[in-house]
Amino acid sequence: MFDRLAALPLFAIFAVAGLVVVIASIRATKLADTIADRTRMGEAMAGGIILGGATSLSGIVVSVTGAASGDASFAFSNAVGGIAAQTLFLAIADLIYRRANLEHAAAEPANLFQAVMLLILLSLPIAAIAGPDIAYFGIHPISVALFLAYLAGVRLSTTVSEAPMWTPVETRETRRDEPEDEAELHRSARGPATVFAMLVVIMASAGWVISQTGGQFITRFGLSSSLVGSLITAVVTSLPELVTTLVAVRRGALQLAVGGIIGGNTFDTLFLVFSDAAYREGSIYHAVGMNDLYWLATGMLMTAILLGGLILRQREGPARIGIESALMIGIYATAVAVEVAA
């Protein structure tokens, strides 16, 4: 269907699909905050599981569709490129939040644990790539391990959120997770959850359109799958995370902002699981190139720096942003330069 379109309509459809994802994500952020209050789940967990998973659906559709069509590099780079881009968004939010370093103000044990879990999950694909080329029913054993590790991590994250064994030092810049309206605690979450589910379907549908137009960019304009996946579709499908982060920061829901990015990135590792299942020519891990592995390493490095910033809790850094934010911006800019030059 899309292969018959001229270039201009193709770009227009791509832009409209991206805009639909962004608009739906704005509404989803407000609903996630409401759901967090009414279910007493907490902003960090709601951001990491509900909001993070919902805003990632358009990206997972892109990766799975790419893998099913036989383009392993496109599927893989869209997943890991999105993780790097979304981590960058926290640095952008730190620039906007002027009271203090965002990582200082959003102190939350659940976010720390999810960052550690993300590093563990990202290390598993490296083990698969470096290990023997094996697959059972077209699926690498690491994909199964990654999926089970994700489920175990979510369960442990809930435990950390509900019964933390330590708490961060309170300062005047620390933003605590408290309901804006106490009446919210006594209202049903069914209505907001229903609307939220409808928005999820819309974002997933837009993700399919983005995957189809992104595939046309590769074939029609001779672009590499890694370039399109890591810098075009990954960034566009990650725009909900940017929007939801900025909206959450503006609303003062800092734990929701940080948890949404880290939790969304954790959920994004499942892109590789589903993509491996959709890729029918063997293990997807042994069909990717070095550029894709480079973006995986970039995502891990940026996550490690973010984790360090969450632990350090620097009050104020250069240009009134944390040193971790400055480093993440520099690392991502370097990665983009390397990808374009490759």
From TrEMBL:
Localization per record: Membrane
Q: How does it sit in the membrane?
A: Multi-pass membrane protein
For this protein, the parts annotated as crossing the membrane are 6-26, 46-68, 74-97, 109-128, 134-152, 193-211, 217-240, 252-273, 293-312
Q: Which InterPro entries does the annotation name? A: NaCa_Exmemb
Query: Does the keyword Cell division feature in the UniProt annotation?
Result: no
Look up the domain of life of the source: Bacteria
Please give the Pfam families that the UniProt record associates with this protein: Na_Ca_ex
Annotated Sodium/calcium exchanger membrane region domain ranges read 11-127, 194-337
Q: Where does the UniProt entry say this protein principally localizes?
A: membrane
Keywords for this entry? Membrane, Transmembrane, Transmembrane helix
What is the official name of this protein in its record? Answer: Sodium:calcium antiporter
Q: Which organism is it from?
A: Maritimibacter dapengensis
